[in-house]
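The instructor's notes for this session suggest beginning with a concrete chain rather than abstract definitions. Hand out the sequence below and ask the class to guess, before any prediction is shown, which regions might be ordered.
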Amino acid sequence: MTTPILHIVFSPSAAGCLRQALRDAGREDHVTCHFDNLALGPINPPDPQTRLHWMEEELHYTGWEWVFAEEEAFWKAALVEDVRRVAWISRRSATEYCGFLEWLWRLGDLPCEVIDFTDMPVEGTRNRAFSLFLLYPQEIVDNGVWDRAQPLGAAARERYHGYWRQLRAENAPLRVVDAEGLRSAPITFFDQELLSFAKAWWQKPARIIGETMGEWVGHPMEQPYFQAGEGLLAARIIALVESGVLEGRGNLWNIQQSEVRLIDAYQSSTSG
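After discussion, reveal the predicted structure:
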């Protein structure tokens, strides 16, 4: 009897792409997706109620309960023993990397395979794939990406466990990734970058957020990273308004309809 294959992914959009690709290829593999963004908030341990409270207090997020309902189903599926487990990851995505490390932490010594997109060339894309969620289902099929799975050896597993052990111990508000790897960061980590795109005239927060995220992707010859989503950056813009660095008008959670600008005193201090 053939052992069933379970693909473990750490991005909802990636899960959708992979499921479509599997259907198109006539494969009956299963896919389970980790929804919680462990690049944000407490992770020692990643208790749902503790994290929910942090999201509400620090980021003013509401309605996050559905994520933890999805997480319960994920962990039930992702830790079963009688399957061939294949994890799809990118070490250039803080969200994916953190999700993978927590899954591997809980997996213990059970065997698994990994498809690592960090530097993987995929025919049909303009650059390296960077992450599964950037591929079209047909590109996954045409390149037979599922055939690139490699067993995770003991040394690599212990190295990953060491990374996550340290990050758990630090239990910082954020985790970010760069050429040096994954590291802890303060909640203010993205503030200066956001402010570098703010102007003395009114702009929509969506523009500032878009330009900030665009910097992480970089130029075609540079290595891209995905650090955080719109929600965290919008929350930090609101925090900068509340602290008097930016001025805002409108409902700032609606990043397409509200506006922000630098306050004169801050603009003068930075230009001087």
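Then share the key points. DSSP finds ten helices and nine strands in the chain. The mean pLDDT is 89.
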